[in-house]
Automatic annotation (TrEMBL):
It holds the Pfam family SH3_4. InterPro entries: DUF1058 (IPR010466), SH3-like_bac-type (IPR003646). The keyword Signal applies. This is SH3b domain-containing protein. It comes from Pontixanthobacter aestiaquae.
Length: 155
């Protein structure tokens, strides 16, 4: 009899994990975890596709949560609905502004220049402190000014 209850308890615990993930309060940062993501005009597959993202790792700001769907905003201010299961909690950022952004070996203007990142480059985001963030673009790591990336700071 004890053994019949145990699978039911395990199943209930497993089913509660997605429910807990759904309780994350907006706003928060996320990244696209697929090579193609449809942004829709409403929170269902029945709504028209307004935009298609083709950049895995692109940062997205989640501004509202609704039963498996997320109202998101991208770095250009475009808003729409995406399926929540196609987003990752991994932190990412995209280079913004004018011209290339310096990636340095230390979080300061005096740090040695390691790389230049063009506007639109997407990378993984590490820790941020005093206006600088750790940034990794396909294994090229360095510190970049927080003002030159979108996806860092308070959502």
């Amino acid at each position: 009899m004890k053994f019949r209850i145990l699978p039911a308890i395990i199943l209930a615990a497993l089913m509660s994990v997605p429910a807990q993930a759904q309780k994350r309060e907006a706003p928060y940062w996320a990244t696209i975890k697929t090579s193609e993501l449809n942004m829709r005009v409403g929170p269902s597959r029945e709504f028209k596709i307004a935009w298609v993202y083709k950049r895995e790792g692109l940062p997205i700001k989640v501004i509202r949560v609704a039963e498996g769907w997320r109202l998101v905003r991208d770095s250009e201010g475009t808003e729409g609905w995406v399926s929540g299961n196609l987003l990752s909690a991994n932190r990412g950022a995209v280079v913004i502004g004018d011209g290339v952004a310096a990636m340095r070996d230390a979080p300061a203007e005096t740090g040695k220049l390691k790389w230049n990142a063009a506007v639109g480059v997407v990378g993984s985001l590490g820790d941020c402190s005093a206006g600088w963030c750790e940034f990794n673009v396909a294994g090229r790591e360095g510190w970049i000014k927080q003002s030159r990336i979108w996806g860092a700071g308070e959502p």
